[in-house]
């Protein structure tokens, strides 16, 4: 059973963005499964690297739309993206330097991001993006 299930509550009604959010759900579930199989440490580096890549590509897409559509919450939203990116890079540096991070720390961080950012902050741009034809 998945640790975190995708649901319509997570959808922002923009296919490309929802698909990228589903990838984040997949990262959480893959890492959680590895942790339960006592292989979390082996899966950490892959997940952390995927988080860094996700931050670079996904956030750039969202921010490009926000700027194009003159979304009013852009600056505050961008700050949240910067915090995620900083955390992902910090985890990456810790993994490279020490080689050990509690897998649960990563899982909990990603789950909180989904619940707080995607279900909260991202939902705020949904109407703006949809009004400009993104679906």
SSE string, helix = H, strand = E?
HHHH
- Kindly identify the CATH topology: Four Helix Bundle (Hemerythrin (Met), subunit A)
Low-pLDDT runs: none
- Number of contiguous helices: 4
User: What is the global morphology?
Assistant: globular
The strand count comes to 0
Work out the helicity level.
Answer: over 70%
Kindly name the structural category.
Answer: mainly alpha
What characterizes the major β-sheet? Answer: none
Q: What portion of the residues fall into strands of 2 or more residues?
A: under 5%
Distance between the first and last residues' Cα: 30 Å
The oligomeric state of the chains shown is: single chain
Structure report:
With 135 residues, the protein is an all-alpha fold. It has one domain (12-29, 40-131): Four Helix Bundle (Hemerythrin (Met), subunit A). Helix content is 77%, strand content 0%. It is built from four helices and no strands. It has helices at residues 15-36, 40-68, 74-97, 103-131. Helix 1 packs antiparallel against helix 2 (40-68) and helix 3 packs antiparallel against helix 4. The longest helix is centred in the middle third of the chain and has 29 residues, at 40-68.
């Amino acid at each position: 059973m998945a640790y975190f299930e995708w649901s319509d509550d997570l959808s922002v009604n923009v296919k490309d963005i929802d698909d990228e959010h589903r990838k984040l759900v997949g990262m959480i579930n893959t890492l959680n499964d590895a942790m339960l199989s006592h292989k979390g440490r082996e899966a950490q580096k892959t997940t952390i690297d995927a988080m860094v890549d996700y931050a670079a590509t996904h956030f750039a897409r969202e921010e490009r739309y926000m700027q194009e559509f003159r979304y009013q919450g852009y600056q505050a939203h961008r700050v949240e993206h910067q915090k995620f990116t900083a955390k992902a890079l910090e985890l990456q540096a810790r993994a490279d330097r020490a080689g050990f991070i509690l897998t649960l720390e990563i899982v909990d961080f990603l789950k909180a991001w989904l619940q707080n950012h995607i279900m909260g902050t991202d939902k705020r741009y949904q109407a703006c993006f949809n009004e400009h034809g993104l679906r």
